[in-house]
Structure formats: structure tokens, C-alpha cells
């Protein structure tokens, strides 16, 4: 049977197929789909920090392409040209620009900012301007580090002041006083606990007894007939009121006795005469009393 293909042809075919598979595999690992049509553009970048081949290109976080090549212009040395491959359906409006962003762990990427206010578009292969966004480390070196440098002398002065305060003898004495106060407070607390454990139970017993007595007294008070008591009080007050009226009435006996001036004068004169009579009786008893034995 005659062979259709020679041995050399089969080796060449296998080699060609292997090379194609290797090319496709390498581009696939880079994130490039060789079977998907793309549009290529050139981006003029001032720097390409951490940007590599096959780095992603995003629009609002959505991947639309990859970096295909990075070339440095040795003649001008002013910019670097980055070739990007975008999806075939991706059309870039004029006035759009690329921005280089550095990730913390994922490396750098390009963000495409579209100009949404025009109806004209770049042609395939045109050069588009690119900028470099300030990364996290750049911000730290430009803003935080100068502030830290300005703070360091003050921090040194603060540390020296703290060292002087810590090593000052007054602080040691204050700590000793605080320790002594704490020990005294602990002793007082212990004594208070002893007093409470010894005297608290009798105090509670007395309090319970007092509460019981108050309860009994309250029960007795509840049993009193307040209406009868108040009636008696009212009757007594009425009698006192009548007595007061009689004393103030000049037509009554008590009123005449208290309010008649002539009666008072006569009583006073009678008392004076009686006093003189008793005095004369004491001085001259023979005038009034006669004793006869025989």
C-alpha cells in the first residue's frame, strides 16, 4: 500500500500544529484571545510603573482589553508608547484618555475614561493620550511622609517631657501616697465589712421589730372612731365658744363680774378693809375678844 503522506510531511505538520497550540496557549495565559477580533490603539504614557504585557484595560471596572506591547522612544525620551487591544465592538470617542492605576497586590492596569459628550471616534491605530494616577504609595510619600517628618521633632520633645515627668521624685512620692491611701482604704473597707457583718443583723432585727410595732399602731389607729372623736371635739369647741360669748356679754353674771368697774372697785375696797381689820385684830385683840375665867 502506497503511503499518502511522507514521514517528513507528517513531522512538519505535527510541528506546525504544536507551534500554533503553543502560541494560542501563551496568549491565553496572557489573557489574549487570538480567535476574538480586536481593535488596537496606541497610548502615549509618561510612565508605566508596574505595567506589564497582558495587563488589563478597564472601563468602569469592566475588562475591555489588554496591553499588547510597551515601547520606549529612545529618540525623544519623553514618553512611552503602549499598544492596547480592545474588543472589536469597542469604539473610543475622541477626547477620551487612558489612566494608569497601580494596585496594591494585582499590579498596574489601564482605565479608559470615555468622553460621552461627542459623536466622533478615534480610528483604529490612532494614538490616545494617557496619564498616571497617583498611587497609594505615591500619596503616602507625598502627603503622609512630610507630615511624619514634621512631627518627629515634636515627638522627640514630647518623649523627653514624658521621661522627665516619669523620673521626677514628686511622681514617686505621689505613687507612694496613692499606695498608702489604697492600703488605708482597703483597711477601712475591711473594718466596714466586719462592722456590717457584726451589727447589721441586730439592726435589721430592730428594724423589723419597729416595722411590726408601726403595723400594730397603724391597725389600732384604723380601729379608732374618727367621726365620734371629731364630734366630741366640735362639741367642746362649741362650749368654749359659748363660754367666751358669756364672758364678753356685759349682761351675764360672768360678764358683769369681769366688765363692771364699780364692782371691781367695791371688791377691792372690801379686800382692803378686810386686810385692815385683820391687821387691827392682830394688833389689838382685846378690842374684839374678851376672855373671862370666872
Describe this structure in words.
By secondary structure, this protein is α/β, with parallel strands linked by helices. 56% of the residues lie in helices and 17% in strands. It has a 7-stranded mixed beta barrel with strand order 1-4-3-2-6-5-7. The mean pLDDT is 77.
Task: Tell me the number of strands.
Answer: 7
Which structural class do the helices and strands define? alpha/beta
Beta-strand content: 15-25%
- What are the secondary-structure elements, in order, as H or E? HEEEEEEEHHHHH
For the biggest β-sheet, the strand order reads 1-4-3-2-6-5-7
Q: For the CA atoms, what is the radius of gyration?
A: 62 Å
Unreliably modeled segments: none
Q: Judging from the principal axes of the Cα atoms, what is the shape? A: rod-shaped
Main sheet: strands, sense, barrel: 7 strands, mixed, barrel
Query: Can you give the mean pLDDT?
Result: 77
Measured between the Cα atoms of the first and last residue, the distance is 214 Å
> What percent of residues adopt helix (DSSP H or I)?
55-70%
How many DSSP H or I helices?
6
Task: Give the tags.
seven-stranded mixed beta barrel; 294 residues; alpha/beta; 17% strand
Layout of helices and strands:
Blueprint lengths: L6 H24 L7 E8 L10 E4 L2 E11 L7 E8 L9 E6 L5 E6 L13 E6 L3 H32 L1 H55 L2 H23 L4 H7 L1 H23 L11
Parallel strand pairs: 1-7, 2-6, 5-7
Antiparallel strand pairs: 1-4, 2-3, 3-4, 5-6
